[in-house]
Design brief:
By secondary structure, the protein is of the alpha/beta class. Helices cover about 50% and strands about 15% of the residues.
């Protein structure tokens, strides 16, 4: 891991505490797109998309929620390991319960890192439109569970979940606008 310590743009090279940057929000709002962009602009940052890891579990198509339950502890362990190396992790992952948030925060704390939760929100119609236009490997699962209704329901539940600890980012506009809002919020924090 020593060879990673000098990676330009990494937390270790900046002399600051690494961060678990959790991008939360309803299905289709753009979490994965923003996470990929952030990691691409910040060498050494791990884009840890749990939906990508889910595909590695046999039977995930038939029991998506069961696979997610198996994967979540794995990705939190991966996050803690990467954070302990002194580098940031950006994790696009929908959660809607405070207990899940506590597990994310505990993984960061265990690695000596900060946990920052950003909830990307856009009107349900915007998320629905993005969902319909995207090509994501979990879309067949979303469709099997109700498609548009799942997107609407995730928006309602994430809105009810909001805590004072989460920073809400307007994700209504283009990707670049949302990304700029995230960068500004991270620079302030």
């Amino acid at each position: 891991m020593d060879h990673l310590a000098g990676v330009a743009g990494g937390a270790a090279s900046l002399g600051r505490v690494p961060r678990l940057i959790h991008l939360n929000g309803p299905t289709g709002v753009g979490k994965s797109t923003i996470a990929a962009r952030y990691a691409a602009d910040h060498p050494g940052t791990l884009d840890l998309d749990a939906d990508e890891i889910v595909r590695l579990v046999g039977g995930w198509r038939e029991d998506f929620h069961g696979a997610v339950d198996l994967v979540r502890p794995l990705v939190l362990g991966m996050a803690a390991t990467h954070l302990a190396s002194g580098h940031d992790v950006v994790m696009p992952q929908l959660i809607m319960r405070g207990g899940e948030r506590d597990r994310f925060a505990a993984a960061a704390t265990s690695a000596g890192a900060d946990y920052l939760e950003f909830v990307l929100l856009a009107p349900p119609e915007t998320a629905m439109d993005r969902y319909r236009r995207r090509e994501h490997h979990i879309d067949h699962v979303v469709e099997a569970l109700g498609g548009a209704e799942v997107v609407r329901h995730s928006h309602e539940r994430i809105t009810a979940y909001l805590t004072p600890a989460a920073t809400v980012l307007d994700a209504t506009g283009e990707v670049e606008q949302t990304y700029a809002r995230l960068r500004a919020a991270l620079d302030v924090g």
